[in-house]
Amino acid sequence: VQDMVLKIKKEIESGSDFATALSKQPKYFDDLFVNLVGAGEQAGTMEDMLDKVATYKEKTERMKAKVKKAMMYPIMVMIMAVVVSSIMLIFVIPQFKSIFEGFGAELPAFTQFLIDMSNWLQAYWWKPILVVIVIGIAFKQAKQRSAKFRFFVDTAVLKIPVMGIIINKSAVARFSRTLSTMFAAGVPLVEAMDAVAGSTGNLVYYKATMQIKEDTAKGVQLNEAMLTTQQFPNMVVQMTKIGEESGRLEDMLGRVADYFEEQVDDLVDSLSKQMEPLIMAVLGVIVGGLVVGMYLPIFKLGAVVG
Prior knowledge:
The structure is a single chain. By secondary structure, the protein is mostly helical. It is built from 13 helices and no strands. Among the domains are: 1-23 and 31-38, no CATH class; 126-157, no CATH class; 163-268, Receptor-associated Protein (Up-down Bundle). It is 85% helix and 0% strand. Helix 8 (163-184) runs antiparallel to helix 13.
């Protein structure tokens, strides 16, 4: 960081303006940040603009963290389920296997299935790991190289129960927050749309925003362009319309962002409370199923002896 600051200082001393100096450090400052600072310089309101940028960054980063937290919950459930199942199958079930071999009787189908799976995992435990790694790499490469595949994934994500709602609302919040901040900086609507599109975090909303850019460049009202995409809730469109008609669009978009950010907070908090009992239930079903499978032969033997 110190090296970055020294480079910016050197650029300014050589005659560059602050925004230009920042633009040469893309690792630390994105286009949106640079554009806002540039607008503040031109308007002579640098102090106020830096304060707005700091507030914007704080809110958007907080939103990203909330969404990531929400996405981690189902992944945690899956990982816990796989880890517990693997430990039971590789280390616990083999202990029962030696006992069952002394019975000399045919085992129940479910018990035999678990023993066969245990034998396979002990011999080929590395294969599932390899498959997961290969699929993960292939998925990442496909998203990077194919816009169609990335669009398909982002569309599918928006339809996932609960998670889709959170991602939709967070995208609308980012759209509104970014556009409100750009307006505050005095950036024209059409010019602001590139930065707004990049801030949404989802290719579906990115394409919708770029369509809005094309429509507004032709003279279409912002609220009408948003309505045409069919991607924004009616409440958002109506508040945008009110903002345009009253000349308070920046304020209205800020309120929309506040509203959806609060909704995302509530949804993530609710999800976190629901996930703890869900994780316990999933683990209970897995462990209970494996234990029952291992005790079935003993129950069967007891019934015969009885």
